[in-house]
Amino acid sequence: MARLKQVAPDIDSAAATGVDTIDWAVVERDLDAGGCAVLAQLLSPDECRALASLYPDDNHFRSRVVMARHGFGRGEYKYFSYPLPDPIARLRPLLYAHLVPVANRWNATMGTDIRYPSKHDDFLARCHEAGQTRSTPLLLQYVEGDYNCLHQDLYGEHVFPLQVAILLSEPGRDFAGGEFVLTEQRPRMQSRAEVVPLRQGDAVVFAVHNRPVQGTRGSYRVNMRHGVSRLRSGRRHTLGVIFHDAK
To answer: In which element (H, E) is residue 159 found?
Structure first.
């Protein structure tokens, strides 16, 4: 806990600065084109290491999941408890504010009536009124041989259609393998897979469930899943930022 207090101001400052300096028009373009976008160097190496160092301390978390016990893959992750550590508590609403226009536009394009409020606290209030009160930001840990099966992070009736994963480890130094993978299931077509290359501190924004795609006869809906390929060596930590809470 003491270490977090020492580094939190730097992380808070970097989170705000990093989010504000992103070209969000490019992010929106990439999300529309492929269902994902990379936010380069959202966190510094020191900030990444500080967040990854929280993993052994269960005081920060509400639960631990061992993937193999549930058929999710191999590896493990922990859900942070409320109140969230300051760096994550500050980063979550900052990212949400930039992504909510995309979320609302996507729903309108897909003919979905749901719209999301501009402030994250208002959206969380909606989740909590529906019984989705458990925090969903999580810290994932993989070692050699671990992987994450393709999945969707839904957690309840209220789902924000975008989420963020931040790589806290450095490929080639801390681990090998363990690539972030997205698949897109298109109507009456074979699924498309995409590997998203990330460096330490990079974040990827991606579709949680469905996204609209513009075709020759108008827009249609595709189904998205994400996962992590097998880690060949080392240790990999990732921070997952999900904007809806869980039942």
So the answer is: none
